[in-house]
Amino acid sequence: MKIRLLFFALLCFSLHLYCQDVQLFGPRAGMGYLTNSGNSDLKDGIHSAFGWQIELPYSNGDLTGYGEAGIMLLGIEQGIVFPHGWGYFGCRYGSIGGGLGPVFDPIGVGLGINIYHQLILEKLRVPIGVDLNFIHGTTRIQLFIGFNYK
User: Fold this and answer.
1) Is the dihedral of CA 149, 57, 4, 103 positive or negative?
2) CA 133/CA 144 separation, integer angstroms
3) Would you say domain 2-149 falls under CATH 1.10.357?
4) Per the CB 3.0–4.6 Å rule, which of 14, 51, 117, 138 could disulfide with 72?
């Protein structure tokens, strides 16, 4: 557990330094439901999640393409730290968007999908949505809220 916490702290610090020139970055929190957790330390059921995200738009206009990356810790209320990360590529039309890409955690690598609505409050962006992750028979459905500063 100490190694996982150290890994997360170093990753967040690195992301913070990297994000100084990135347009959209910030914390993310959520709650979700985990099924078929298999060999993981997490139990099936409801879990909390806390982490950090980066979004890099690569086009402009009404239809905006973007890349997103981040890491989250799961299972805090279960007394363990279980990191998972993702990298999505997607698009946003106005304030509604979605992405698809690889997700990884200590179980392995899989596929992730997200769909969200982004509230725009001047320089603050607040994405609210759902993530679906599929890794080696494990399914994670997660509701999230994030805070991106532009």
Assistant:
1) positive
2) 13
3) no
4) 51
